[in-house]
Amino acid sequence: MSQTANAAQAVGSPLSAAGSSSTSSVPASDQPKTGSDAAATSNAAPNAAQAAGNGNGNGNGNGNGPRPRAARPTLDPAWTVDDSNVLYNVRGWGKGFFDVNRKGHVVVRPTKEPAREIDLLDVVLGLRERGLRTPVLLHFSDLLQRRLLDIRDAFEGAIKDNGYRGRYLAVFPIKVNQQRRVVEEIRDYGRDHGYGLEVGSKPELLAVMGMTTETPDRLIICNGFKEDRYIEFVTLAAKLGRTIIPVIENLTELRLIVRYAEQYGIRPRIGVRVNLSTPGAGRWRHSSGIKAKFGLSLSEVLEVLDFLKSRGMQDCLQLLHCHMGSQIHDIRQVNSGVNELARIYVELAKAGAGMRYLDVGGGMGIDYDGSQTNFEFSTNYTLQEYASNIVYKIMSVCDEEGVDHPTIVTESGRAMVAQQSVLVFDVLGANRLDRFQVPTTLEAEFGADAEIPRPVIDLWEAYSMVSERRLLECYHDALQARDEALSLFSVGYMSLKERALVERLFWATCAKIRDKCREMPSIPEELQDLESAVSDTYFCNLSIFQSLPDIWAISQLFPIVPIHRLDEKPTRKATLADLTCDSDGKIDRFVDDHDIKKTLELHELREGEEYFIGAFLVGAYQETLGDLHNLFGDTHVAHVRLDENNQWWIDEIVEGDSVREVLHYVQYDATRLAMDVRKEVERAVRSKAMTAAESHQLVKAYEAGLAGYTYLECESHLD
Ligand SMILES: Cc1ncc(COP(=O)(O)O)c(C=O)c1O
Asked: Are 507 and 535 in contact (CB under 8 A)?
């Protein structure tokens, strides 16, 4: 893969190469919004502690970590934290869980109560005192608990309001976040409400079996491909007394289930996954439909029932399942999918199957941009609306056909766990393309008698003549002169000094045109990419491939916001680049209200002071998808709780990978490597290339490196 683009490369690249095009969102549906979600986005008043600038938590103290300066003057006195809140739409995507306090720091409100909050900067600095540096993934366990309750309340509320006569059961698909701690929390927080777990593979099943031994009645749903041994194990688990339902994805599985049921003398609970004809929507639309990877056609579902009938086992077919895709952004898709599913359910029940469970799968979306619209990174519905529509649709279809109301099962993954995780990383430095200074005259640069190449003169003129009336003309002239200069340089007719001036003049001209564009009500189409082309690059201490792989792999959007200094106006616009030597290791698409923006507003970096950025809503799918590109390993993970006195505390720390560990993953023996380095060093001492003391220093540094974090660990990188 190619190397990270730097300023010099950028000079040679046309502006058209910068960023992807914007995507407009479709206006919100006219479905009514519910009270509970509206309340979640309301503006909560800061509490007294905030107003007094009084941080809580046990993270502060006499640590050595850099601190934000007290009472820092704002560059624009008119700018307030409310302006930052609007700019980054924190309350929109935060849904009551995230906000900005009076100090200009992002806070987490794990229970949505305005008086109970955790200051993210406080946590990051507190971790620093405990020897844990950024990048760090923060898990907010109380937030997860609250989210599980919200989902349960929404369904139970809908059941009560509609007079539905069945139950609701949530099962968590562990592939969405397999981290032991997260699954345990869901198991424990869901204890009183019977939360179950969904597995999609044999390893996942074995993990879940081992961690639910104390709660054998918990529903375990087995999706995905199942071979002989897997099905034998599921059969024995059922015999053990577990409430376990294998969901048939193909007819071979059915035969195996029946064979083992007969062999072990049990009557299994069996599920069947059907492919709906309702078209999917959004990025994962191919999860449903006749060509979907999983699930049976209607004819095959009937074959399943006939086969079971032929064995006198039709009462064992108890669950009907479908999965309409993830991040469903339009409620109409949920409505029509559930309607079709319910129709199939009642027909199976009437045909003699022992139907009891209707599993609508996952798919409930997250409003990543906070716009609450029918946009692929948003949702045009609330949690309450989602639950009400599902309950109501199933009930009306069953009532029409005189079929008992089933237990409704959902497999929401993203909607359960996305919000509980925040990735915080520090900025190492910035590259500014508009920093280039140009001389007052060309003579001042080259001397009065110098023979200046024509393209340099043309560029100089383009730069000098920039005005609102001639923006496009100057831009075209600058592009042409720049290209001619590059050609001259490549055939040896231009000096390095002249070439360097071309670079400065070109970017200074672009910056001047960009500044003019900022003052204009509408920008000519050709210049619309200029803002992102001239934007800064902020280099960040993280690996996109390890910590935010969905950004790279599927162009996922997450809200990304500085976690402090939000009482100051951000004066820079930037894209983010990670530590990897890969040009894909960048973030150049950011959530915007109803749109995608190519740059993020950030603050000017200050010498000797760290700058922290948070990526929010990252708890779904990301955590086990990351890879070891450039051997950057897992980041530290801290599980943060809030006690009754509103003090945050660290419940558990999972240290990130050391260099030694990542080397081991790719089959290096770090001890062996260290021994070989030691031998080479000894040879250097013998040949007097280095002193014994220097050799000791080198070996010490090598061993410390092996034991250390894979990310940059220095105190402050900004200068
Ligand atoms: C069968 C099944 N159930 C549930 C889910 C979870 O979906 P989501 O995270 O969108 O709720 C998935 C995800 O792809 C899935 O394949």
From this structure: no
Q: At what angle do helices 670-686 and 692-707 cross, to 10 degrees?
A: 170
Which ligand 1 atom sits closest to the C-alpha of 363? 10
143-421: in CATH 3.20.20.150? no
Q: Which of 94, 100, 58 is nearest to 82 (CA)?
A: 100
Q: Which residues, listed in sequence order, are joined to residue 430 by a DSSP beta bridge?
A: 538
pTM of the model: 0.87
- The vertex-74 CA angle with 72 and 78, nearest 5°, equals 150
Instruction: Find the mean pLDDT for residues 35-61.
Output: 36
Rounded to the nearest angstrom, the distance between the alpha carbon of 370 and the centre of ligand 1 is: 22
298, pLDDT greater than 90: yes
Please state, for a pLDDT cut of 90, what percent of the chain lies above it. 77
Both tokens of 531, joined, read: 């803002």
Mean pLDDT value across the chain: 88
543 contact partners, CB below 8 Å, separation of at least 6: 578, 579, 580, 585, 626, 629, 630, 632, 711
Give the Cα separation of 341 and 321 in Å (integer).
Answer: 8
Ligand 1 pocket (Cβ < 6 Å) reads 173, 176, 198, 223, 323, 326-327, 361-364, 411-415, 620
Main-chain phi, psi angles of 652, to 5 degrees: -160, 140
HSE of 283 in the Cβ direction (CA atoms, 13 Å)?
A: 14
DSSP 641-677: EE-TTS-EEEEEEE---BHHHHHHHTT--HHHHHHHH
* Cα dihedral 590, 87, 139, 134 in deg (nearest 10): 70
Nearest alpha carbon, ligand 1 atom 5: 362
Could you count the other beta carbons within 10 Å of the beta carbon of residue 428?
21
| 481 C-alpha to ligand 1 centroid (Å) | 54
Tokens read off for 222: 């087995």
The confidence score (pLDDT) of residue 457 equals 95
Torsion (CA) 666, 668, 671, 674 in degrees, nearest 10: -110
- Return the pLDDT at 445: 84
Q: Judge whether 346 and 397 are in contact, CB under 8 Å.
A: yes
Q: Quick one: pLDDT band at residue 593, thresholds 50, 70, 90?
A: confident
Token pair 């087995």 is found at 222
Q: What is the pLDDT of residue 45?
A: 34
CB 426 within 8 A of CB 541: yes
- The answer to whether the CB of 228 falls within 8 A of the CB of 221 is no
Tokens 């919200």: give the residue: 150
Give the distance (Å) from ligand 1 centre to CA of residue 323.
7
Distance 113 CA to ligand 1 centre (A): 30
Query: Which residue in this structure is represented by tokens 């069953």?
Result: 398
The pLDDT-based confidence of 692 (bands split at 50, 70, 90) is very high
Q: Where are the domains of the chain?
A: 143-421, 670-707
pLDDT range class, residue 364, cuts 50, 70, 90:
very high
Cβ proximity of 359 and 130 under 8 Å: no
Tell which residue, 3, 1, 11, has the closest CA to residue 508.
11
Residues in the chain: 719
pLDDT of residue 448: 83
Specify the DSSP element, H or E, that contains 144. Answer: helix 141-162
pLDDT at 291: 60
Kindly give, in sequence order, each residue whose CB lies less than 8 Å from that of residue 107, ignoring residues fewer than 6 positions away: 98, 99, 100, 101, 117, 118, 119, 120
Q: What is the pLDDT of residues 121-144, one digit of tens each?
A: 999 999 999 999 999 999 999 999
Q: Using CA atoms, how far apart are residues 311 and 184, in angstroms rounded to an integer? A: 39
Closest to 414 in 3D by CA, of 702, 674, 172: 172
Residue with tokens 């973030």: 587
